[in-house]
Structure prediction request, 227 residues.
Amino acid sequence: DSGVTQTPKHLITATGQRVTLRCSPRSGDLSVYWYQQSLDQGLQFLIQYYNGEERAKGNILERFSAQQFPDLHSELNLSSLELGDSALYFCASSVAAVNTEAFFGQGTRLTVV
Amino acid sequence: DQQVKQNSPSLSVQEGRISILNCDYTNSMFDYFLWYKKYPAEGPTFLISISSIKDKNEDGRFTVFLNKSAKHLSLHIVPSQPGDSAVYFCAASAKDGGSYIPTFGRGTSLIVHP
Prediction:
């Protein structure tokens, strides 16, 4: 158990819909990262938050947004969903903004039908 | 354009033998490298890392070697155990705005046969 909690574990939704993925980081970790893993792809970095502020941005679509709340949990919002958005979405956390070692949650498997 | 490449999608090894997983990178700015292990239905788990100022880092049965001139790193597992069967991801990062964001390869699936 990494200490990072992601909910829900599975999500099935229709095209055009909007979903919210939630992540609770390990106790004491200030930094949260979101990654997307599509079929046969590596982990694609989406976005990082540190202590409530956006820290770094990767290949995140404009239809996607995220935020980190004062209690340090984070949410990833995916809107106008397309079939190609079906993937595993991982959240990771680390103590500092420097990602020398991140702890990953179990992921949320999103299926868009 | 893949900056971190794991060219072998899978590797099969006998228990007790050495497993060697390879990783190549193209970005010369990368200066920190990590290996993660992932079991099915779980998130990746950090395994071992190496800074570019070193060429070797060892942790128990796991050793990572870095060849900066060749832009190549490898993970050696000795001896391999059936419980090591998992997908192994190589990741590399470079300081950018004060934050290291790892770029991951596509992973190599290791199967260790009893």
Observations:
- Chain B has a mean pLDDT of 92.
- Chain B has no helices and 13 strands.
